Amino acid sequence: MKYKAGMVAPVNLFFMLFVSRTLVVFTVCSSLLGGKYSVDLMISLAIAAVAVLLLSVPLLVMLRQGKNLLDNRHLSRFYAVYFFFAGAIGLARFVLFSTSKLGNINSPLLLASVVLAACAYAASLGIEAISRFGSMVFFIMFGGSIVAVIFSLNDISVLNYFPLVQNGSKQIVSTAVFAVTVTSEVMLLPVLAPKINGRIVAPYCLCAAASLVSIVVTVGTIIGVLGNTATAAAHPLGMLYQIMKFASTERLDSVFTAYWIFAVFFKTSLYLYAAQECLKTGSKRRNCFLGALGIFGATVIILNVGVITRGREIASVIIYLLFAVALPLFYMIISKRKRLVENQSNN
Q1: Is the Cα torsion angle 90, 129, 293, 322 positive or negative in sign?
Q2: Distance from CA of residue 179 to its chain's centroid?
Q3: By C-alpha distance, which of 230, 188, 227, 228 is closest to 207?
Q4: Which of 129, 143, 324, 335 places its Cα 20 to 30 Å from the Cα of 136?
Q5: Is the pLDDT of residue 277 over 50?
Q6: How far is CA 40 from CA 15, 104, 296, in A?
Q7: For the chain, what percent of residues have pLDDT higher than 90?
């Protein structure tokens, strides 16, 4: 494949989307899910993975046809607002974790502004720099996950997996819906697709399968080691690293924190890059600065009104269906009608 400036290989798309998707497992806990940490969580994750692939079909078809709804200036700016809030949710969760677990940080907003400043600089460097950083984070997270699983095998108790289903069918569906709505990779596709030097469908589908396997194995390990304790833990994966035995060291939660920091910096940079691509006007540095302000403003709103807590399922579903399905379908229909009108006028 011939190198093209300003574009990246399909494998880089796989790395970026994999990191973005698996970051969810760092923040998932029972307080967000509304149910117990049990085997049926893995069933919900599998359902969600299939649902996301099916819901991605309109957008993938549109991109395969050489169309992109971000070519429309109004829709593009509408998606920029989405990236502001999507980036802010992940950043707000990390800031809350940092202020409660990493020490006495008096100003969460100061920490958020420092993170955004670094991410804005990274986003201004372009997709090639972001993809290289994403590839590095992928291998760090993937290697860390393997280490966590391997060194936890001796602590796994089969009894912790029973009963297999501890949540009702309603809760299983609710968890699957939650897992779908926290998936932002579909919305990132219109931004990333024009930057990929090759096919996008194969790496996208492969990422969906690989990230599902990675998340299910990680969640299965957490359940096997922690049992019912995982339900009460604020960060079950972090607790797994705390009790994991590696040589003479029994506390590796700092490793978990490092993984999370890398992943949060990458994903926030990716959202900032997506936002500045959607703004389209002015220089890239100016757009990155505006994107950082947008995410900072959204973070302030989230931290003040607490919208990252559970109880917003309907709003999350509406927002997801709007940006992932409705708007791509709308754009395809409008584009088709416009092309038919142009053909009729030419004839």
Answers
A1: negative
A2: 10
A3: 188
A4: 324
A5: yes
A6: 28, 37, 36
A7: 41
Whole-number mean pLDDT of the chain? 85
**Three-class SS state of 308:** coil
- If we measure between CA atoms, which residue out of 30, 22, 339, 70 comes closest to residue 211? 22
Helix (H, G, I), strand (E, B), or coil: what is residue 280?
Answer: coil
Write b or e for each residue in 160-194: b if 16 or more Cβ atoms lie within 10 A of its Cβ, otherwise e.
Answer: beeeeebbeeebbebbbbbbbbbbbbbbbbbbbbe
List, for residues 211-253, the tens digit of each pLDDT value: 999 999 999 999 999 998 988 887 888 888 888 766 555 566 7
Partners of 8 in beta bridges: 196
Q: pLDDT (tens digit, 9 = 90+) per residue, 21-79?
A: 998 887 777 666 767 888 899 899 999 999 999 999 989 988 988 889 999 889 999 99
* Rounded-to-integer distance, Cα 302 and Cα 306, Å: 5
With tokens 């194969």, the residue in question is 202
Q: What is the pLDDT of residue 345?
A: 64
The rounded distance, in Å, linking the Cα atoms of 46 and 165 is 15
- Cis, bond preceding 163 (omega within 30 deg of 0): yes
DSSP label at residue 291: H
* Full-model pTM: 0.91
| First-last CA distance in the chain | 40
Token pair of 342, please? 């142009």
